[in-house]
Amino acid sequence: MTIAAHRRPSAAHTGDAPRTFPEHFLWGTATASYQIEGAVTEDGRTPSIWDTYARTPGRVRNGDTGDRATDHYHRWREDVALMAELGVGAYRFSLAWPRIQPTGRGPAVQKGLDFYRRLVDELLDKGIEPVATLYHWDLPQELEDAGGWPERDTAERFAEYAGFAADALGDRVYTWTTLNEPWCSAFLGYGSGVHAPGRTDPAAALRAAHHLNLAHGLAVQALRERLRPDARCSVTLNIHQVRPLTDSAPDLDATRRIDALANRVFTGPMLRGTYPDDLVTDTAALTDWSFVRDGDLEQIRQPLDFLGVNYYTPTVVSHDPDRAGHGSDGHGASAHSPWPAAEHVAFHQPPGERTAMGWAVDATGLYDLLLRLAADFPRLPLVITENGAAFDDYADPSGAVNDPARIAYVRDHLAAVHQAVQDGADVRGYFLWSLLDNFEWAHGYSKRFGAVYVDYPTGTRTPKASARWYAEVARTGVLPPAGRQ
What we know:
GO molecular function: beta-glucosidase activity
Strand order of the largest sheet: 2-3-4-5-6-8-11-12
CATH superfamily: Glycosidases
Strand content: 5-15%
CATH topology: TIM Barrel
Active site: 181 (proton donor), 386 (nucleophile)
Shape: globular
Helix content: 25-40%
GO biological process, one term: cellulose catabolic process
Catalytic activity: Hydrolysis of terminal, non-reducing beta-D-glucosyl residues with release of beta-D-glucose
Order of helices and strands: EEHHHEHHEHHEHHEEHHHEEEHEHEEEHE
Radius of gyration: 21 Å
CATH architecture: Alpha-Beta Barrel
InterPro entries: GH, GH_1_N_CS, Glyco_hydro_1, Glyco_hydro_1_AS, Glyco_hydro_1_beta-glucosidase
């Protein structure tokens, strides 16, 4: 897989004409279990790695936890009603593994499954397609205590859990995703330590990446064995659009190195059945990759119905011979790097507007990324499973929440998606992140990504201006010109 040349949409691509999406384009919104559910000790649920991490002093801003979150576990009917009011066609949510299989072993807990049965039934009753993600980072703590994702057994336990979920919900749920952003699970969780479980071992991060790949392949097989023939299976990757700071040979090599660690460590085995040779060579001082056993790659490479793509901002890198490999590249403050064997790669912020996360606003990165994936995997449909932005939203004295910056962000990124479709990318849908303001991992409740404003003390939900705007786009399938809301 080669690095795609950076291509910006021309001025003609960003004009003032409305853009009409394909008739069957899927419009949705998304959430994750730990970020919204709360009820972390109810109905048999036991701690996940994020419960443990959030309760560790100094890990999460302001000492915030997901203990209550947005209380979706008790307010799910209200949240589904909000979705119905907004008119979105699909809802991408994740199942909490420790709610279904509390220790990561043994039988499923029916009360946990019943929560998702009720949620899915309500979605279907309101005409909203449920899209279930099996794993959005909340590993049962007991599995982490036994070694976590760096251990092969965790992948095998994941396949068992996938079977429980499919048995319970397969008659209701048509579309399934195995993992959400395994790069974050492996490299932020076990490399830099800015995500749960907070470990800082680069070799363990590489082992975790492989066992997440294996978990994906085993879970797809478990799903296929149980689901109806027309069900769809996928995985969601946060593919990094990696760009060199300059066209110099060292900067291009830095781009190649990060592309291998960010993208091809997953797309290689999942979609091609092999790990990239350059990745293995780059990391040889850390590991001999002996954890990859005979037959693993065949297990990992399973036919997929689409690839989920999460995108927020591009990644700009350069070679820096004086860099010691420490510091942050926008994934949280840490003295440890999430990039094994990339000690001399520096990360740069592009100029221009930023979100509240400090991420550059640049929709051309999404356009480039979709065209690259279309070229590299021409027969694999794509779905944007997350895209959105955090801004410093607030309710004005009348109670309204106006967020023009979010509308502009989403509008520009939808224009990039539309242009990518026009230029040959097979993109089938778009899920706005997120339905609700929620627990934003190590940032706690300080960052608001939601289309719906949540007053955390009361739990009151208020659709922002962007929610109404997005609802109209979803209803009509037409993206209005910039500045027209």
